[in-house]
Design brief:
Order of helices and strands: HEHEHEHHEHEHEHEEEHHHHHEEHHH
Shape: globular
Helix content: 40-55%
Strand content: 5-15%
Number of strands: 11
């Protein structure tokens, strides 16, 4: 991204905001490759164009291999939230995360993570859940918690199309893609460890968003929102795309240098893109008792047929059904604690008193009548 594009984007993005906090999210590839001077300039431009009283927040996603003390000091001084990509212990991480020569990256990633921690940079880990670590949920979680001291975690299921274009086309998936049963098992393993020991101490994104749904709040995570269209992408040349999963020609909205950023964000094509998530739900989804929690999941994963034969069912549907059925009892307990102005962490003592009652998996509730569900 050239200096001109960076400055025009920063100006337009800040001018278009009518909120007290504005978020800049930097992703790549690997954004560190742009060099520290680029981000120093970005922060300076944010200060130049931000209205008085507006708080600017920067989030930065990195593989961690190039983090140095100089970078860590910059992140700390400018209050960056840094996400670092780690898939588990070395034997798991190094399966897919290698450099261009095929060498393992784990040691470099851990060095980068420790550098962030030493400089007190706010950070979390983003973990890709694939066939490689699907059966190691509890091991991965414990490793992050106990060995790395991580308190904020995201677990992203890998659903990867197998085609020659790299776009979201076709229904075939690659050999790395996790199965719905594997993803459900991974989440349930992690949740069981977390809800017994770490509520209020360790924060797992999908558990937080699930609890929000049980409380009756918006999940705050795009894949579980009723509609989408707010996760647009600006590329290095100023091109704007509907979503970071759809950086492909049919979802190019235009170029903000020519068309204006606000005009692209609020145009008819983007509105239709966002509303299609809700309006294209299958009948099976619309009648599902867990619709309030997942809202059909991410549209990029709607590559299967429903049990009724309708196209557009989410590949991970069964995973979400099994996971939500398993966590229903503890989620209702935590939701009631919140309504009673108590800490959700009290569930840990409740479990110790009667674990069988709270965590008994029982029979799946995933297809019970909708009328019996909304008691939260």
């Amino acid at each position: 991204m050239t200096d001109d594009v960076l400055e025009d984007f920063t100006r337009q993005y800040l001018e278009a905001q009518a909120v007290p906090e504005v978020n800049f999210v930097w992703q790549g590839g690997e954004p560190i490759l742009m060099g520290l001077a680029f981000f120093q300039k970005a922060v300076a431009l944010q200060k130049k164009y931000a209205r008085p009283g507006v708080h600017v927040v920067n989030s930065f996603q990195t593989n961690g291999t190039l983090v140095t003390p100089e970078w860590a000091r910059f992140f700390h001084q400018n209050n960056f939230l840094v996400g670092i990509s780690i898939d588990g212990p070395a034997e798991i991480h190094n399966r897919y995360r290698v450099d261009k020569m095929g060498n393992p990256s784990f040691d470099d990633v851990i060095r980068g993570l420790r550098c962030l921690q030493e400089h007190q940079v706010e950070h979390n880990v983003l973990t890709c859940v694939s066939v490689n670590n699907a059966d190691r949920g509890r091991d991965v979680y414990r490793y992050f918690r106990d060995e790395l001291g991580i308190r904020y975690m995201q677990f992203i299921p890998i659903v990867e199309r197998d085609n020659n274009t790299g776009y979201q086309e076709g229904g075939a998936v690659t050999s790395r893609t996790i199965t719905p049963q594997q993803y459900a098992g991974f989440l349930i393993d992690v949740f069981t460890e977390w809800v017994r020991n770490d509520v209020g101490r360790v924060f797992v994104q999908i558990f937080d968003t699930t609890l929000a749904s049980w409380v009756g709040e918006r999940p705050g995570l795009c894949v579980f929102e009723p509609t989408c269209g707010l996760g647009l992408v600006v590329e290095h040349n100023g091109d704007v795309f509907s979503c970071d999963h759809y950086v492909e020609p049919r979802h190019r909205l235009g170029n903000f240098m020519e068309d204006g950023l606000a005009n692209l964000v609020f145009n008819r094509q983007q509105y239709r893109f966002g509303m299609d998530k809700r309006e294209s739900l299958t009948r099976y989804c619309r009648e599902c008792p867990w619709l309030f929690a997942c809202n059909g999941g991410c549209p990029k994963n709607r590559i299967r047929r429903s049990p009724d034969g309708e196209e557009g069912q989410n590949y991970l549907c069964r995973a979400y059904q099994e996971f939500f059925a398993f966590v229903d009892k503890p989620m209702r307990i935590m939701a009631n604690l919140i309504r009673d102005k108590k800490a959700p962490a009290e569930i840990m003592s409740i479990i110790r008193s009667n674990e069988r009652e709270v965590l008994l998996p029982g029979e799946s509730q995933s297809r019970q009548p909708k009328s019996n569900r909304r008691r939260h």
